[in-house]
Amino acid sequence: MDLGHLYIVATPIGNLQDITLRALETLKQSDTIVCEDTRVTGILLHNYGIKKPLIALNEFNEQTVIYEIIEKLQQGENVSLVSDNGTPLISDPGFLLVRLARKKEIPVFPIPGPSAVITALSASGLPTDSFVYLGFLPKNKTKKKKYLQYLSSIVTKDFCPTFALYESPHRIIDTLTQIKDTFGDIHVVVARELTKIHEEFTNIQISECIANYSQKAPKGEITLLFSLKSQENVSSQ
Predict the structure, then answer these.
(1) Chain-centroid distance, C-alpha 81
(2) Which of 123, 89, 111 has the alpha carbon at shortest distance from 20?
(3) Where do runs of H (alpha helix) occur along the chain?
(4) Do 147 and 138 meet the contact criterion of CB atoms below 8 Å apart?
(5) How far apart are alpha carbons 24 and 26 in whole angstroms?
(6) Whole-structure pTM over 0.85, yes or no?
(7) What is the pLDDT of residue 230?
(8) What's the rounded Cα separation, in Å, for the pair 19 and 124?
(9) How far is residue 179's CA from residue 204's CA, in Å, rounded to a whole number?
(10) Helices 172-183/141-154 angle, 10° precision
(11) CA-CA distance, 44 to 24, in Å (whole number)?
């Protein structure tokens, strides 16, 4: 029996129209769709009239459910992996599944599409020739401080990338404060609710950003970006 194919399918990060024709065709032809949250993926599939069996794969069950999925692939089923939004595995579950599939010599095909970090970077106005994606910073304050100090130590004249990270609304003030303590009162770009109705890009001095969020906490998904290379140009405006 031929092995099935595992497809890594990028889905919209907000606006449901931001899905490729290839992604839709792949989802329609899949025997099973693996997703983070069946309710979230169900909305997307319903919008495009797609009905497929769903398997939930998240940070809590990934180490066990991947064997069920691998068995389906070995039996010849084609499986699509999606996340709640954006490109799977980018700060989302799926790495263990893809690694095991590769180990079992199961064909894995990427179906590219939206990614919040790339979307934010492209419209941020920050240098894009070199960037470092940090994912989510450590939740522990001590670990976060050490991590930021390490980043500060590796930045040089020849290596000065734009840094991009994800953060939740309830931790954003602490993260901004620690960045300020490490890098100074620099300018940052906060990209919020990308591709949605209330999409917002804010280019602002970090102390002002902290003050604003202290008065009114932000909502929605946040991508935070900053570059020490851009500070001189921003400050002179």
Answers:
(1) 15
(2) 111
(3) 21-29, 38-47, 62-74, 95-103, 116-124, 141-154, 172-183, 206-215, 231-235
(4) yes
(5) 5
(6) yes
(7) 66
(8) 22
(9) 14
(10) 40
(11) 10
The single residue listed with the structure tokens 């010599």 is 105
Residues of the chain with CATH 3.40.1010.10: 6-114
Taking the domain 117-235, which CATH number applies?
Answer: 3.30.950.10
Tell me which CATH code domain 6-114 carries. Answer: 3.40.1010.10
Return d(Cα 92, Cα 90) in angstroms, integer: 5
- Residue spans in the chain of domains classed CATH 3.30.950.10: 117-235
Could you tell me which residues come within 8 angstroms of residue 174 by beta carbon, excluding any fewer than 6 positions away?
141, 144
Helix (H, G, I), strand (E, B) or coil at 142: helix
pLDDT digits (tens, 9 = 90+) for 114-132: 999 999 999 999 999 999 9
